[in-house]
Design brief:
This protein is of the alpha+beta class and 429 residues long. The chain has 2 domains: 45-339, Deoxyribonuclease I, Chain A (4-Layer Sandwich), CATH 3.60.10; 344-428, Orthogonal Bundle (Type 1 dockerin domain), CATH 1.10.1330.10. Helices cover 28% and strands 17% of the residues. The chain has 11 helices and 14 strands. Strand 7, helix 4 and strand 8 (210-215) form a beta-alpha-beta unit.
Length: 429
């Protein structure tokens, strides 16, 4: 535990304040691992799509694979998980929520949130609203879990709409299965048109970010992906005319991450004993008019070096179904979204998304600037100076300031008065 005090203080003042504050301001532990797994910005919203092979994430189903999933979740720290091949009747989304509450508990006793349609489950750190289990019209094959993620208003000016799906398996180009995949793509494009248009079955506020995620089973024609990206509907009699799916009248963007964020390898499914070549089956496709992307990658622990695995707590075969690296089944697809409407608190001087001890350190360093100060110097109220008023803003907004009040019997205002008095005396001397 570290007490953070202005560097101008002499030893007497330092000892007094250390006693007064009870050594209660603790520097946060470093979150970064120094590997490709890290977010570019702490505020990046991490989205993961993962076909987990029929319930193997649960210890009751497969303890070995469940332990692997635990390590993957701990390393990735997702905000929203879009899973396929859960249940479909048992286990359920509630079981996934219970599992996440156990292996990746949220601060303050908060709970994960889940929504399911057939074998597709959305599980989120944030509440889910506008729940739906299929499009209208409904395609003839499989369903889709759809939900609006209610993101924190203090950080984001918009929510995020997800369509988590599992397209029909197997069959080459021109097959019945391929036709069903095309129908599913047509239906999603029509649903997104409905979401952008007042009335109908679903209504989103203008410019709400949207993403289609899941195992799209692209083993035949590539036309279903072309439809999702461009809005080129094939069955217009049922699903309406072509409709570019983004809010600005353009197509969507296919994130297309590669293994461990380097090189050109992009397959998301592999089983060397199957007779089929590795393929890219899993996708995250999104509205680029309202979203930027930070890091993105397909997690392949077999291809990581030992230093990367040590830094992230992962083991060599954590994304495989074996201990030889020949049967991967599906790999996790990871995209970090940067919301174009992200906002930061006035005293979040380093734009980390959290007002904490690191911001207090910035304020300390800038304390005493009398003109021309910027937010990055510790100027929270934008008056060009860094002084006690900026500390008051930090104290009001900071989670790190809460223990100060709890540890001191006097009113917080008295403590701040004493702090200000000490600052002024020291600077006057």
């Amino acid at each position: 535990m570290t007490t953070i005090l202005p560097p101008q203080f002499g030893s007497r003042q330092t000892k007094f304040l250390a006693l007064l504050l009870g050594l209660v301001i603790q520097l946060p532990a470093a979150a970064n691992t120094g590997t490709f797994v890290d977010r570019q910005l702490p505020t990046d919203l991490r989205v993961v799509s993962y076909n987990v092979l029929w319930n193997t994430i649960f210890p009751s189903e497969n303890p070995t694979q469940a332990a692997k999933f635990d390590r993957v979740v701990a390393a990735l720290d997702p905000d929203i998980l879009n899973l396929q091949e859960i249940g479909p009747n048992d286990p359920t989304a509630a079981d996934v929520v219970a599992l996440m509450n156990t292996i990746q508990p949220l601060p303050g006793g908060a709970t994960w949130h889940g929504h399911q349609s057939w074998d597709n489950v959305i599980v989120s750190k944030y509440p889910l609203t506008m729940l739906a289990t299929d499009t209208v019209p409904e395609p003839s094959s499989t369903s889709v879990a759809m939900a609006l993620v209610d993101l924190p208003d203090a950080q984001f000016n918009t929510d995020f709409y997800f369509m988590n799906t599992h397209f029909k398996c197997c069959g080459g180009a021109g097959s019945t299965e391929d036709d069903k995949r095309q129908e599913q793509a047509d239906a999603l494009v029509n649903w997104m048109r409905d979401a952008r248009t007042p009335g109908g079955n679903v209504n989103l506020p203008a410019n709400t970010p949207m993403a289609i995620t899941g195992d799209l089973n692209i083993v035949g024609s590539f036309q279903p992906i072309n439809t999702l990206v461009t809005g080129n509907i094939i069955n217009e009699g049922t699903y309406g005319s072509d409709s570019p799916p983004d809010w600005d009248g353009t197509g969507l963007t296919d994130a297309h991450p590669v293994h461990n964020a380097t090189g050109a390898t992009d397959y998301t499914w592999r089983n060397d004993g199957s007779g089929f070549a590795p393929g890219r089956l899993d996708y995250i496709i999104y509205t680029d008019s309202s979203l930027n992307v930070g890091n993105q990658f397909v997690l392949n622990t077999v291809a990581m070096n030992s230093a990367e695995r040590t830094a992230t707590g992962l083991q060599q075969y954590d994304v495989t179904q074996d201990s030889a690296g020949t049967n991967f089944d599906h790999l996790p697809v990871v995209v970090d979204f940067q919301m174009q409407t992200v906002t930061f608190a006035e005293s979040d001087f380093n734009s980390s998304g959290t007002v904490d001890a690191a911001d207090l350190t910035i304020w300390q360093t800038g304390f005493g600037i009398t003109s021309g100060a910027a937010k990055t110097d510790g100027d929270a109220n934008e008056n060009g100076t860094v002084d006690g008023d900026d500390f008051l803003v930090w104290q009001r907004q900071s989670s790190a300031a809460a223990p100060i009040a709890a540890a001191i019997p006097e009113p917080t205002s008295l403590v701040l008065l004493m702090l200000g008095s000490l600052f002024m005396r020291r600077r006057a001397g």
